[in-house]
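tool=predict chain=A
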Amino acid sequence: MKRALHNVAAFLGVVILLAPLAQKAEAQNAIWSLVLTNPNQTVVAGTSGTVVYSGTITNLDSTNVLNLSGDSFSTGTWDPSLSVTEDPAFFNFLLNTGSLNPGDSYSGALLDVTYTSSTPATAMNNPYAGTFTISTDGNPNDQTQNFTLNVKPNASTPEASSFWGLAGLVTVCGCIGLRRQRRRIA
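tool=predict ok
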């Protein structure tokens, strides 16, 4: 019995001595979040422009500064007419500030996808999917969010099925009108 009490006392002593070290190590691992506010965007084929993906980076830690060291994106196999770049506003934030104090956040543009009038609507990888990653200076780990760009066909060109459906409707209406006119004459 004495030996069991001795073991329990020794265990509690070790826990009491190591608890402050565990708290300090935990405090160095800042908690943060990355959220894209508009991760799935759609454009129309035959047009050109730039789609801006915005989001919020929040330092959820109440004691530690979050140091951001950069960002990256991966797009897999995209059409060559598409290009992805870091948004200038986010670039300036990383260059000039690059950190978030406890409880602070950055909200704004993060990355831009530029498309041209030759970007195909029916590409094999449509919608185009990518990932956006923000890196820190160590712990905590990097965070990644998915984003997509869907290129829809131009609506001004009717599909063949829509055209033939409309042509059939006009033909039926014309036949009904012709039949009514013949009944009035007879």
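Residues 31-169 form a domain with the Immunoglobulin-like fold (CATH 2.60.40.10). The first helix runs from residue 2 to 28.
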